[in-house]
Structure formats: structure tokens, C-alpha cells
Model the fold of this input.
Amino acid sequence: MKSLRRFFVRLSNLAMGRSAGQRLQDEIAEHLAFQTEENVRAGMAPAEARRQAALKLGPAEAIRERHHAEYSIPLIENLLHDLKYAVRVLLRSPGFALIAIATMALGVGATTAIYSVIDATLLHPLPYPNPTELVRIQDDLPGVGAQGVGISVPEWRDLQSSGIFQSAAISGTGANVNLTGSTQPLRLSFKQVTPNYFAVLGVDAQLGRTFDPHDNTPGYNLEVVISDGLWRREFGADPRIIGKALRLDNDVYYVVGVMPRGFRDQGATSDEQNVELWLGAGFSGVPFDPPQRNHRQRSRVVLARLKPGLAVATAQGRLDALVASLTKQYPGDYPAQTAWTVRLIPLSETVVGSIRQSLILLFGAVALVLLISCVNVANLLLARASGRGREIAIRQALGAQRTRLIRQFLAESLLLFLLGGIAGFGILFFTRNLLLQLIPASLPHLNDISINWGVLAFALAISVIAGTVFGLAPAFLMSRFDLVGTLRQEGRGSSGSQERSRARQILVVSELALSLVLMVVASLLLRSFWDLFQVSPGFNPDRVMAVQTWLPGPNDPTADKYLTATQESVLLREILRRGRTLPGVEEVALGDQDALPLGHSRPGRLPLLREGIETVDNQAPVIDSPIVSPEYFHLLGMAVLRGRVFSDHDLEDTPQVAVINEAAARTYWPNQDPLGKRVRLRLDTRGLVSSAPPVWTTVVGVIADARTESLADAAIPQIYRSLYQRPSKGLAIFLRGQLDPSAISSQVRAQIQSIDPELPVFQAETLGDVVSTSLSVRRFSMEMVAFFAGTALLLAGLGIYGTISFLVNEQRREIAIRLALGAQRGTILKMVLQRGLGLAAAGAGLGVAGALVVSHLMAGLLYGVSPTDLPTFASVTLVLAAVALAASCIPALRAMRVDPITTLHAE
Amino acid sequence: MKEKPDVPQGTLALMVLKTLDVLGPKHGWGIARRIEQISGELLAVNQGTLYPLLLKLEHEGSIASEWGASENNRRARFYRLTAAGRKQLQAETRGWEQTAAIVARFLNIKAEDVA
Done:
């Protein structure tokens, strides 16, 4: 209270510019008069009495200073004074100020831009209350190398009652459903979730309600919650939507709620987040399989909210104990060799996915650019110091304290850095829409990226920190002028600034080193990207387009007209026949969504049980298993190595056959002939209820490996099955030929809907686009890092140019004398160039060492190029040397042309 | 050379407040003289340090000041205790007495007392 009052009185004194100097002077005069009187009374001579009074009072100047300090707030007062002075100084050299501010604007602007992306993705990935309590629960079978095997309903119930979680919910991974009855059948992405799903996330509906968390309906409860987007788009934001019936895959559901506008489902990709329908389901009872402990559904994701205050590690410990006791209780369901484990993963980690490493790399790169900008400005500050030697010396001679001078210089650099930061932020703010377009659409949380107050605070904070750190050293060095020497030498090309010259060289060397690191990183990324771009994918995407459709899967299997492969094959053959009649089409093939090369984020993997080796699902390794029509391999140009591919005569009632790729043959039948081997794949199809045990499937052919999962992965085991034997609800229609990409969607839609008007047709894309989209994040980070590296090189070039010019300027006199004494001009040129090359060599040495460390850290982002790739390192070093040489050339030529007579005369 | 110990923080302020409480409004020199008389050597030199302190107390609202005429008719600035200052003095006095009592008890402790 008291100190607050005191602060405000002082602040108002400061603001009003009041001074108590006169008052104190009067008081002291009185004081001295009183004391002198008393001293006289005590018998002193008047002069001595006055002297003693003054002595007793103490040092008047110090008292006055402390009095003034108490009257006002000296810290702020001085700061204001320093800033005012700094503005005047900067205005006096606007060119310098502009360059420094522009450099900092670049550094801070770029860093802040990347920060805003990281802020939205890595720092605030979960738009739910108390996000730290949210975890994803993943079941692994490390004993057989299987991860994320899914959870069975009894296991989920065990988790619910374990006391570790407030609540645990199952959600199916996003899938498609057809909304029919409106003008055009729509394919919407939906999720089946246990009724407590929204309670776990902690989000309520904006209209109506979410599911009742205690609802125990075994199958679907026939309630649907819809997204705000769907509500506005398809239902015109009708407030009476609640209770309305929707026909989804031919089943009737009732709308119970609309989620709020900003609500996004959890997930790593925008596809996963853009769920539009949530169906409440108990995951047991028709159409789901009866709840058995060993019946895991790979597609199911378990989310849970931990009990408040429970750390993930503690919860994991308790979960491990639960797993151990369950394993003991049900030894038949949890064979020891599979080593069943259950892992808790903070939800925030799972939704960022693979992007984390790229973003951290980008942030690292941009931080280096910022660092180089700072170094450059520090260098400029030092360069200017030599021009201000006289001013500084005079101020020192007049009694300015060193700390006072340092504060003054610091205020100047802070002002520069802050102005730069504000300029950078301003540019970022006004170009944000343009910049957002550069970011690939596949980046998670793209829509959450915003330039907000937090980002502004970040920009200001790094400006202040950088200004302090990089202003301090120059301020320190500038304030250390040799007073007498400077005043005497002024106007005669001082050579007494050894320290500053050394500081500048250190700065320039570090700048060169940093930019070398960035350039190496950029080149390695470029090489990786180029190699990936050039890699032969093992399939031919040229002139191929894919269009998708989705067959309804009603909850009552008897209502499904595409239930069996035989029923579906009628439709498939008709699609193929009509597809071939479309203009320009040469070949048509069909596949499920997993068969779409590089086009699916989550491959459907099934346990692979080899005859005579594995006996239960829980022991089996998992394998990618696309389902395709016989024409698929030929259309995509995938070569048959052994045996045969599918034929039109492999049907539901003929022996089940499969085609594997080389990788599968190598992995699962090493040194054996895989042809004729028999396997079982666990069934994992929505809505399929079958009590008959799965039959054996015989491997009839081996095809060459193709990079259909990821361009970076050469060989992932795959097993293909025929659509005529294994129906699929999701269908991709592949067309090869001279196609018109803009018309193909409506052409295919017309053909498909003339067969079945209730089928939606969506997402027509060329495979070429799919391939390049799969590289978009890589391309983005490569382009950004390359841009940063280019900027860094430019800044480093400017830095070395400035430093060499400075050195030449300092040595004008020496050069003039040498020339006067008969030195060759060529020798002078060589001398200066050697200086530049010396700096470049030091920078390159340090940079190569740094780049080696960094390139090993980012090895996971590289493809086809070693982190120590010699050609990359050599060429980058050469480029740096060339730039350094070029930048030193201009000052070197200037040095060579020094006219000894004028120079020596001028001194 | 051994330096004279500084007046502990806050002690001088307490002395000023007490002086004004007992003697009524006083000018700077009067206060300094009074403290010097009571505390002996403590404020013998550097009487000037009193003035920044007086200003601080004034900013805090414990004392108020105005120009007036001194006993020998000279213009002088007189300081007086405010109501807030009186309260502060009481609080600080209590505090000091407590501290002093504790320290005194501690210093008088004998081995047999704690045995």
C-alpha cells in the first residue's frame, strides 16, 4: 500500500517533469545555517563553524542525487532520456538504421512466422478443456512386432473400471457413410464412438445434446451428432434439426445434437479432423461382433481422460499392473510370446504425428537465420562505433560513467531491434493470407494458424532478448575507448581499435559458419527430395486417375444388397464395363481405399496367420492387405515376377487366392517358394457377421515391390486379395487413358448412378497429384530451408563485405605507406583477399563441424543421401568460399586503388 | 580502518517518526539534532542522508511537510506526523519491541536453562 502510493507520487512527479531541487537546496541552506549557529554558540570561529557544519552534513552532491532519485524514478527517467537520444542518433544516420531494421525485420518476421505454425500445431494441438489429462491408449504386441493392434470390448470395460481414468471411450477411425435422400447422395466421414466420447473430450453440443455417457445400447443407439459445418451446409442451419431423421447407409438415425463451430475431432490430418457425423455405438451386439477378449478391432482408437492430477507415468505404472494381472487371469487370450502391453500416449503427441520433426527442423533453420541477422546488426553497430569514437571520447572526458555509456548504447540497439521486430511482425501480419497459401494443405491444424497476441508477444520478446544479447557486446566494446588515444588519433585513421576489429572478425566467422550449416541442411534436404522425386515408384502413375465411391453398409446385414462378393461383383463388373466406354479411357481397374497408392493415411493391416506357424490372431504379424480387381496390376504397371495375378474366374465359391509382393515373400517365406503357401487373414470388415471360420487363402503370385505406401519406403510387405472374393465398401475406380480431369468426375458419376442412383462419387484425382501431394510437407520444408539458407548466405556475404571494407578503411594509412614504399598493387589486392579467405576458411571449418552435428540429428528426414555426404559438404563449402571471395573483392579493389599521396596528405 | 556501522535499514525512519511523535512538527535540522542527541554518535556525520529519507516518508504518506517560520524566525520546512504515520509508528514499535525481547532472551540464555 505504502510503496504503491510512493510509486505513484514518484511517477506523477516524473510525468509532470516536477523537480524538488530548489526545495532541497533551500532546506540544506537552512540546515547549514542552524548548524553553523550552534557551532558558533559552542565557541567556534565563524569560518570554522561553517566548515564543520558542511562536514557534518556530508557530501552535498550525493545527497542531492539520492534526493532526486527518491523524488522521481531514475531508471525510467534515464531510459526515456536514452531512448530520446537514441532516436536522434538513428535519425542522423537513416541509411544505417534502415539496413539494420530491415535485417532484423527479416529475422524476426521469419522466426515469428514459423513460430505461429508451431504455436498452432505443437504447442496448442488440442482444442479441449484440460488437454493434459487426455491420453490415447494403444495396445501393442511387441513379441510379434505388432503395434496398435486395437482393443477388444472386454478390455475396454476393464479400463473403464480400472480407477485410472475418469472415463475411456472407443472411437472407430474415420470412415465414410452415405447420406441419401437429399438431392445428391453424399459421402460423409463419420465416426462410431461410445456414448461417453464427448464427455471424455469435455465438449458439449451447441444445439441439442451429445450422447448420454451412461447409454448402454449394445449396437448403434441410432442417435447422431452432426458437425456445425454439415448443419450449415446441408440443413441451412435449421434450428429445428434436433429429432430430424437422417438416412445413413440406408439406416435411419435421429439427430440429437449439433457440435459447436470450432469443434474438430482429434486426429493428425485434416481428413481425420473433419468428421461430420458421430454415431453412438456400444461396439457389442449387432452389427458388431459379440464381445470376446481376443477379438480386437485394429481400427478402434481408445481415448481416455485421466483422473485429475494423475501423471501419465503414474497412470502407466498402474496400467502395467492391470495388464500383468489380466495376462495371468486369461493366459489363453494373452500368450506370453506376444508380450501384450498397453501404452498411454499423451493425446497431444498423437495428433501432431510425423510433422513434429519437420517443424522442429524449420524452427531450427529460422532460428539460425535470426541469429545471423542479429550478428549482422551487431556487426553494423560495431562498424558504426569507429565513426563515433570522437563522440564517445568526448562524453567520457566530460565525466560520463562507463555504465551510463553502456546503457546508452544498449538503448540504441534495443530501439533498433524492437523497431525491426515490429516491422517484421507488421509485414507478417499484412501478408499472412498470402503466406498461408504456401503451406501444404496436409499440414495438421492448418486452419488454427493465426497471428494472435501470443505471436506478437513472442516477436517482441525475441526482439528484446536479441537486442539485449547482441547489443551488450558492442556496447561493452564501444564504451572501452582509449580516451586519450582516440582524441589524439581522431581524423588520422585510428588503428587503436584492435578489440573491435577482432570482435567483428569473430562475428563474421560465426555468421559464415551458421550459414554453412543452413546451406548443408538445405542441400541435404534438396538431395533427398530430388531423389524421392526421381525414385521409380514401382508403379506407373502417368495418365491415371482415381475416383472414389462408397457402398452403403446398413446395420442389418439382410438389408445390404452388396453383402457378399457375389452380390457386389455384379456392380463391379458393370462399373468396369461402363468405365471402358468413357471417352479416352483405355483401361479400368478397381480397388479398395488401401489400394490407392500413397493416397491413404492409415493402411488397413491384418494379422497374417501362416499355415503351420501361427495359430491365433494374437500371435500373428500384421500386413498391409489391399483388395483389388484383376486389372489393377496391369493398369498400374506392376510386374508379375512369379505365378499369376487374379483372373475373372477367381470367385467367391472358388478357392481363395492372394498375390503378395516380393517384400512379403522375403519377410515371411525366406528362402522358400511362397507359391502355394496358405494363409489366413483375420476378417475386419464393418458389418460383416459370420460365424464360419475364415478359410485358407493360397498365394498364387508374387509381384515386384512398389512404393505404394510411401515413396521413402522401398519394401513394405503386402498381400493383395481379389475384390471378387472379398467385397469392400470403399471403392477406388482407376482409369488410364487420355482423360479430361475436369470432366471425369461427372462422367463417372453419371455412369455409376445409372447403375445405382444412391451411390456417391467423390474425390477424383490424378495419381500424379496424389504422388506429389504425398511429398508436399517434404517439399514445403525443403523450400523453406532453402529460402532460409539463401537468406543466410546473402547476410553472410554482406557481413564479410562490411568487415573487409572496415579492415581496409582502418588500414588505409598502412596501405598508402606500403604503396609509397613501392609495394605492388597486386600484392595489396592479394593481402586483402587473403584476409577474406582466411575468415571464410575459419567460418567453413566451424560450419562443417556444426553441420555434421546437425545433419546427424536430422538423419530421419533424409532419403537416399548420407548425413556426411561428401559432395554436398564440398560443394557447399566451395559456394561459401566463392561468395566470401566475391564479397571481399570490392573492398580489395578499393584498397588497390588507394592513392598514397591524397591519403597521406589527408592525415 | 574500521568503518562506523550503517544505521540499519528502517531504524532511522523509526527514529524520525518517534521524534516527530514526541516533539511535534520539526524542521530537518531539528530532527537530525534530536536523533543525534538521543543516539549518540549514530548520526554524527552525514546528517544530509536524512533528507532523502524524509522525502520517502512523505511519499509514503507517513509525514507531511510545509514551509513555516522557525523559532528564530527563519524560513524552514516543517515536518509533522500524519494519522497514517502514527499508525505506522505504533506498528513498528510493537515489532521492534518483540524482536528486541526475543533477541534479549536469546542472548541471556545460559547453559543450565536449556539443559
Q: What stands out?
A: Chain B has five helices and three strands.
